[in-house]
Design a protein that fits this description.
Blueprint (H helix, E strand, L loop, with lengths): L13 E8 L3 H8 L8 E5 L6 E2 L2 H20 L4 H4 L3 H20 E8 L5 H12 L3 E5 L12 E7 L2 H10 L3 E6 L19 E6 L5 H13 L4 E5 L6 H11 L2 E2 L4 H6 L1 E6 L4 H8 L3 E4 L7 H4 L11 E3 L5 H9 L1
Parallel strand pairs: 1-2, 1-4, 2-3, 4-5, 5-6, 6-7, 8-9, 8-11, 9-10, 11-12, 12-13
Length: 328
Amino acid sequence: FRFALDSPKKRSRTTVNFLFIYLTENQRRAYQSWVKWSQSYQTASFMKGADRHISWRDCGLLSIRYLWSTYCILRSRSDHHLTIPWLGEFVRYRVGLVLAERLYRNIHPQVVVFANDHSGILRAFIRRARELGCKTVYTQHASIGRSFPPLDFDLALLDGNQACHHYIESGPVKGHVVITGRNTCKPQSSTDDCSGGNFIGLATNELNSLKEWIYWIKRLKQLDRKLLLRCHPADKRKIAWRLICRWHGIEFDSSTLNDYLSRCRFLLTGMSGIILEAALKGVPSLAIRPPKWHSQRMLDYYSYERFGLVKGISRQDTNKQLFEHLSQ
């Protein structure tokens, strides 16, 4: 097979001081709070508006090219029962190596900045940057959970001590670490918390199955509440979510995170960093406990429940209990 990849724009090889790479809106926002933009800084992304465009078309075609060979490599391993369920991430890592090499071929950054350190495709961009001798910087775009990859950047900017502790638990920390604090929104007063929200927000991510969410959608429909669904920016199932929303008569949200939360009176979510964002906005949350998850460590992955930011809910909770939660 021949794959016609997008031809890169003919640009002379240039050198910039900093290259900021992001894949989602929340990763882009992670830079805005501390970066004073300069002409010697450039951005690279799949999203519109970046200085250097990374092609989704190339990503898709390369994924098809490397799918079978990656599967064969994983299938030959003794731990294939653990690795094959993550086939997509391994394929995206292989694709990322190609896309990163292509990006760095036309631009030679002295420093490459990342807001995600665990995504398969971004791990590939990090690897290629190191191979070129570029300095690497990492800044958080969301909360840090247990079992993240060990920190291995020339400079890591973390939101707080808890994030640092989680990384130390993962393995030896390499490079310099600076605790910067978190740039938060202005806290809402008790008189105007959630005053504009009319919806029960449904915040989905790839850790929860479509089948599990359909179950909760049906239960919430029985309570006759208006529902507003937003899937994680990196979720690959957006078309499926749109079809589910249309079938069940739910509004699908594609606005910014702040706009979405401003429309929500309550939030039902999987275990996700949006719980912290909702707490900062004064929106109470319930976190779905998947029926197949039995480890308390995984059920409270970010320690949100332990610190009182969210309450857990499972299928064992009755509709009356669910209604009481939503009425608080």
